[in-house]
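Standup notes
- DV: blocked on the single-chain target, sequence here:
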Amino acid sequence: MPHSDICLLLEGTYPYVRGGVSSWVHQLIQGLPQYRFYLVFIGGTRESYGPQYFSLPDNVVGLETHYIMEPEAETRLRARQAKPGIVEEWKDILSHFLLAEEPLTLQHIDYLLNVLGTKDGFTRQDFLFSKQAWDILTELYWEHSPKQSFVDYFWTFRNIYSPLFKLANIARQVPSTRVVHTISTGFAGFLGVLLQRQQRLPFLVSEHGIYTKERKIDLTQATWIKDRHHVLDNSIHRSLEHTRKMWMSFFEQLGRSAYTYATQITALYEGNRERQIRDGAPPTRTGIVVNGIRLERFAQALAQRPSQPPKVAGLIGRVVPIKDIKTFIRTITIGVGQDPDLQGWIVGPYEEDPSYYHECELLVQSLGMQQHIKFLGMQNIAEILPQLGVCVLTSISEAQPLVLLEAMACGVPCVATDVGACREIIEGMTEEDQQLGRCGYIVDIASPKQTATAIATCLADPQQWRQFGDSGLARVRQYYQEAMMFERFNSRYQELLTWQE
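- DV (later): unblocked, structure below
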C-alpha cells in the first residue's frame, strides 16, 4: 500500500513560512480530509527559516525538510578521475540549462536519477574535484560566457548545479505515493519531474504565481550579483550581467521541464495560463482553478462593517520588495497631504527581508509619516478588516491574492495594481460577473499619485463606498467560495488517482 495518496512538494512556504500560499496549502489539506498527504519541504539554507509555523492536520502522514543550498560536510580535497563514459551526458544536461530552449529529455532525467550522486555514477565529489568536470566547466565557459569573469563563472557554476545532486537524492528516497503535486515550478517542480519518473506517477503542477517570472524579477533586483562587464564592453546597451543570465536560464529550464512532464497544469486565472503556455506548457494539459475562501470566517467581520468608511488604508502582505511597500508609503504620504486624517496600516510579517523592512522604516521617517503609517506585523485578518476603509495592494507581481477576496468578504472596497488576477477580481471575470459591479479600482504599478487618488475616491462617498463593498461580497459569494475550490481539486485528484501511464 502506498505511504500516502498525495505527495505535496513545497518550496519556501508551508509549514515554515506565513503568507497567502502557505495558508492556501493548509486550507487545501484540511478541506480534503479523505486524502493522506505527505509533505516535502525544500528551502535554501536553514538560517532563512524559523520554527514550524503551522500545526499539521491529522491527515498529514509525514514531513521531510531539505535545505538544498547548504554546503556539504567538508571533505578532503584531492584530485580525482570520474568514471569513464559518464561525463558527456552531464555536459549535455548542463548545456540544456545554459540554453533553456528545449526541456531535458527522459534520457537526461534517467541519468539524473540513476547516475547523478550515486556511488557508482557521477558523484558530487566528481563534480567538484575531477579533471573531467573541470574540462566541462572550462569548455562551457568558452562556449557561453567568455567575456564574464572566470572566477564569477566558476562559483556561479558550482552554486547553481550543486542542488541537482540533492534533488536527485531526495527523489530516490521519498516514500511511495499515488500522486505528486507541486504548487510551483522551480526546485520543487523539478523534484516533481524526478519523482514522477522515479515512481511512474501522475504529476500535477498548480501554480499561484508564475515562479519563473518571479525569480526573474528577484534576480533583476538582486544586489548580491555585481554588475561586472568586460573591459571592452563600453556600449550603453550592455547585455544583462552573465551571472543573472545563468540563474535565469537555470530557472527557465526547471520550469520548462516541469511543464513538459506534468500530467496536469493549473493556473489561477487565464493570464497565467497563457504565460505557462508561452513558457512551454502543452495547452491541452492546462486549466484554471480559482482560489476560494470560507465566508463563515468573516461573517462577524461583515456584521461589524461601519456605516461610514474608516479613513484607514491597509496593505495586508509580507514586507518584501515584490509587494512594493515603498509605493504604499509614498501613496499614504500623498493622501495625507489631501486628508490629514488618513492612516496607512501595513499588516504582515517583516522578518523575511530585514534589510528591506529597515529601508521602509527609514522612508517613513524621512517623509515624517510616523504618526500616519504603522507597521502592525502579523494580525488576525478578520479583526483588522472591519477597521479598514480600503484594502490596498501595490504589488509588482501577484497571482490571485487571497487578501482581496478576504476584504471583499468583509464588504471592504479594494485598490490594487494591474497585476495577476487583480483586475478580474475587482471588475469581474466574465460579462455576467461584471454585471455585479466593480468593488474598487485598478491602478498602475509604482504609481503613488494614482493610487492615492483611487483611495480618496473610495472613501469620499459613503454610499458609493457601501456599494463597492456590496459588489465585492456578491462576487465572492458567487465565484470564490472555498467549497468550490475543494470540489475542483477533489475532481482533479480523483482523475489522477485513476491515471495510467
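- Follow-up: The chain has 20 helices and 13 strands.
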